[in-house]
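Hello, quick one for you while I still have it in my head. A protein chain has come my way and I'm curious about its shape. Can you walk me through what the tokens say about the fold? No rush at all, and the record is pasted right below.
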Amino acid sequence: MINDLIYLDNLIQRSLEEDIGPGDVTTDSIIDPHAEGKAVLLAKDRMILAGLPLFSMVFTLLDPELQFEYIYQDGASVQAGEIICRISGRLAPILKAERTALNFVQRMSGIATLTNDYIERAGRQKVKILDTRKTIPGLRALDKYAVRMGGGFNHRIGLFDGILIKDNHIAAAGSITKAVALARTNAPHTLKVEVEVQRLVEVQEALDSGADIILLDNMPIDTMKQAVNIIRGRVPVEVSGNVTLGNIPEIADIGVDFISVGALTHSAKAVDMSLEILPQDKGLSNG
């Protein structure tokens, strides 16, 4: 999943503290701390799964002895009504971790599912669907992992790992040409230079200045087609802005290389899951 275990551990710890605080008064009042039982994680929507390793980490931080049996793994397609995971062990930590664990996996699976919907709508073209930096602060690593589980690709992780000259950079530098020249002079030579353009005249200037990638920002479909004709495959082309499930098939047909969609992370709806404690001596099975 995500290799930074310290980040994950700190994130989970803060999230549990936010929910449990000084103690779960309901669980502590009615559940014997030594009582054991079983629970199942159920899908209540169609979804692409993401975040299951994090889901189990939330529980095991409270009780390392809890046992998990996963029927599905991250990236799998699951239908409503199917069991995703079975949990067994002490009931008190299961109940205390329930909401925090669900919050993570429901949001991440929602992102993965929406990403997959965009990919399906784009069709069989070679275009790659990318995310953006429009993520919840502190959760970017989770959001971008979820995009990958849905079949998408990550754009730059942050401001540190890619050069993207946007309209405000151009305004501050004075022109696309000056901005690209400054980036070539001052940034690491190993990084490609991507330039955001909004008009056809800017497309030509970006080409002339030596941009490695051109991003067509908020252009009408007809203008995108003209821009692609101007570029004629000399550099990769990315499209961003006002991309929806409704218009992405038409955008993909233009022949661009990348389509970045902020909605993957800033507007994804959490999928519906539930964690259900099983009555004693009762189990559930898929099928």
